[in-house]
Write a structure and sequence with these properties.
The protein has 107 residues and is α+β, with helices and mostly antiparallel strands. It has three helices and six strands. Strand 4 and strand 5 form a beta hairpin. The chain is globular, with a radius of gyration of 12 Å. The two termini are 18 Å apart. The mean pLDDT is 91.
Length: 107
Protein backbone atom coordinates (compact mmCIF):
# COMPACT_ATOMS: atom_id res chain seq x y z
CA UNK A 1 0.00 0.00 0.00
CA UNK A 2 0.96 3.65 -0.15
CA UNK A 3 3.25 4.21 2.79
CA UNK A 4 6.35 5.99 1.50
CA UNK A 5 4.53 7.83 -1.23
CA UNK A 6 5.71 11.38 -0.68
CA UNK A 7 4.35 14.14 1.52
CA UNK A 8 0.61 13.73 2.08
CA UNK A 9 -1.63 15.74 -0.19
CA UNK A 10 -5.28 15.69 -1.19
CA UNK A 11 -4.27 14.43 -4.65
CA UNK A 12 -3.45 10.79 -5.36
CA UNK A 13 -1.71 9.70 -8.55
CA UNK A 14 -2.61 6.17 -9.66
CA UNK A 15 -0.24 4.41 -12.04
CA UNK A 16 -0.64 1.08 -13.90
CA UNK A 17 -4.45 1.28 -13.87
CA UNK A 18 -4.81 2.33 -17.50
CA UNK A 19 -2.69 2.45 -20.63
CA UNK A 20 -2.77 5.33 -23.12
CA UNK A 21 -4.58 2.95 -25.51
CA UNK A 22 -7.40 2.49 -22.96
CA UNK A 23 -8.15 6.21 -23.20
CA UNK A 24 -8.38 6.65 -26.98
CA UNK A 25 -12.08 5.81 -27.36
CA UNK A 26 -14.34 8.50 -25.84
CA UNK A 27 -16.85 5.98 -24.51
CA UNK A 28 -14.13 3.87 -22.84
CA UNK A 29 -12.60 7.07 -21.44
CA UNK A 30 -15.93 8.11 -19.88
CA UNK A 31 -16.47 4.61 -18.44
CA UNK A 32 -12.99 4.52 -16.91
CA UNK A 33 -13.40 8.00 -15.41
CA UNK A 34 -16.75 6.99 -13.90
CA UNK A 35 -15.38 3.69 -12.54
CA UNK A 36 -12.35 5.38 -10.98
CA UNK A 37 -14.48 8.09 -9.39
CA UNK A 38 -16.86 5.47 -7.99
CA UNK A 39 -14.06 3.33 -6.61
CA UNK A 40 -12.21 6.28 -5.07
CA UNK A 41 -15.40 7.74 -3.56
CA UNK A 42 -15.45 4.71 -1.23
CA UNK A 43 -12.45 6.31 0.50
CA UNK A 44 -13.78 9.86 0.76
CA UNK A 45 -15.35 12.77 -1.10
CA UNK A 46 -13.80 13.07 -4.57
CA UNK A 47 -13.45 16.64 -5.81
CA UNK A 48 -12.03 15.96 -9.27
CA UNK A 49 -10.65 13.12 -11.41
CA UNK A 50 -8.15 13.89 -14.18
CA UNK A 51 -7.08 11.38 -16.82
CA UNK A 52 -4.58 12.98 -19.19
CA UNK A 53 -4.82 11.44 -22.66
CA UNK A 54 -3.33 11.66 -26.12
CA UNK A 55 -0.23 13.82 -26.18
CA UNK A 56 -0.80 15.30 -22.71
CA UNK A 57 1.83 14.92 -20.00
CA UNK A 58 0.89 12.21 -17.53
CA UNK A 59 -1.04 10.14 -20.09
CA UNK A 60 -1.74 6.70 -18.66
CA UNK A 61 -1.87 7.99 -15.09
CA UNK A 62 -4.95 8.92 -13.12
CA UNK A 63 -5.06 11.88 -10.76
CA UNK A 64 -7.77 12.00 -8.08
CA UNK A 65 -8.35 15.02 -5.89
CA UNK A 66 -10.12 14.51 -2.57
CA UNK A 67 -11.81 16.97 -0.24
CA UNK A 68 -9.58 15.83 2.62
CA UNK A 69 -6.16 14.35 3.36
CA UNK A 70 -7.94 11.45 5.10
CA UNK A 71 -9.81 10.54 1.93
CA UNK A 72 -6.66 10.70 -0.16
CA UNK A 73 -4.73 8.58 2.36
CA UNK A 74 -7.52 6.00 2.53
CA UNK A 75 -7.63 5.78 -1.27
CA UNK A 76 -3.85 5.38 -1.54
CA UNK A 77 -3.99 2.62 1.07
CA UNK A 78 -6.98 0.89 -0.56
CA UNK A 79 -5.75 0.98 -4.16
CA UNK A 80 -1.97 0.79 -3.75
CA UNK A 81 -0.83 -2.72 -4.68
CA UNK A 82 -4.27 -3.78 -5.87
CA UNK A 83 -4.54 -5.65 -9.14
CA UNK A 84 -6.39 -3.91 -11.98
CA UNK A 85 -6.51 -5.56 -15.42
CA UNK A 86 -3.65 -7.84 -14.30
CA UNK A 87 -1.48 -4.83 -13.43
CA UNK A 88 -0.43 -3.85 -9.93
CA UNK A 89 -1.63 -0.34 -9.10
CA UNK A 90 0.91 2.16 -7.73
CA UNK A 91 -0.63 4.94 -5.62
CA UNK A 92 1.37 8.00 -4.61
CA UNK A 93 0.54 11.47 -3.40
CA UNK A 94 0.80 14.23 -5.99
CA UNK A 95 1.48 17.94 -5.64
CA UNK A 96 -1.75 19.89 -5.14
CA UNK A 97 -0.07 22.94 -6.67
CA UNK A 98 0.87 21.03 -9.84
CA UNK A 99 -2.61 19.43 -9.99
CA UNK A 100 -4.35 22.82 -9.67
CA UNK A 101 -2.09 24.20 -12.41
CA UNK A 102 -3.01 21.30 -14.71
CA UNK A 103 0.61 20.12 -14.64
CA UNK A 104 0.63 16.31 -14.74
CA UNK A 105 4.29 15.89 -15.70
CA UNK A 106 5.74 15.86 -12.16
CA UNK A 107 7.06 12.50 -10.99
Amino acid sequence: AAVDCGPPSKVVMLQNMVTPQDLVDDEDFADIQEDVEGECAKSGAVTKVQLPRGEEKGTGMIFVQFGSLEGASACAEALGGRSFNNRSVVATFYSETAFDAGDFGQQ
